[in-house]
């Protein structure tokens, strides 16, 4: 539970920093960033398995069998970020590419945090 909460706070900080650096990402403030990070976390928990399965079937499992499953996971996270964009009025991404960059950034920083702390 503490690990999950720590990831929410770190993800909120990353989202806020990315919004300041990327012109196509808008975020109102840290409170909004926390809410968006929470939405992304909940949607990931509820939907990532389904979206991953659909994309693996759609690609005939090519990425999975080649050991490139992380590409599917990043695309799934970008889709979830797009859903969070639709659910929050204080968060906006213009197009799919900024969501893809956010997904990559969240995955890389999340991996580093896990390697250091857990």
Q: Give the overall average pLDDT.
A: 93
Number of distinct beta strands = 2
First-residue to last-residue Cα separation: 13 Å
Percent helix among the residues? over 70%
- Low-pLDDT windows of residues: none
What topology, given as strand order, has the largest sheet? 1-2
Provide the succession of SSEs: HEHHHEH
Question: How would you describe this structure to a colleague?
Answer:
The chain contains five helices and two strands. The radius of gyration is 14 Å and the shape is globular. A two-stranded antiparallel sheet has the order 1-2. With 118 residues, the chain is mainly α. It has helices at 2-21, 30-58, 62-65, 69-87, 96-117, and strands at 25-27, 91-93. 24% of the residues are buried. The two termini are 13 Å apart. Helix 2 (30-58) packs across helix 4.
């Amino acid at each position: 539970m503490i690990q999950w909460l720590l990831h929410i706070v770190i993800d909120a900080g990353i989202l806020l920093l990315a919004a300041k650096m990327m012109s196509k990402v808008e975020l109102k403030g840290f409170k909004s960033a926390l809410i968006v990070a929470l939405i992304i976390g909940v949607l990931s928990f509820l939907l990532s398995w389904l979206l991953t399965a659909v994309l693996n079937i759609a690609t005939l499992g090519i990425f999975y069998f080649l050991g490139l499953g992380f590409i599917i996971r990043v695309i799934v996270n970008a889709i979830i970020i797009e859903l969070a964009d639709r659910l929050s009025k204080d968060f906006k991404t213009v197009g799919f590419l900024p969501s893809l960059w956010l997904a990559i950034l969240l995955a890389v920083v999340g991996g580093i945090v896990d390697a250091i702390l857990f």
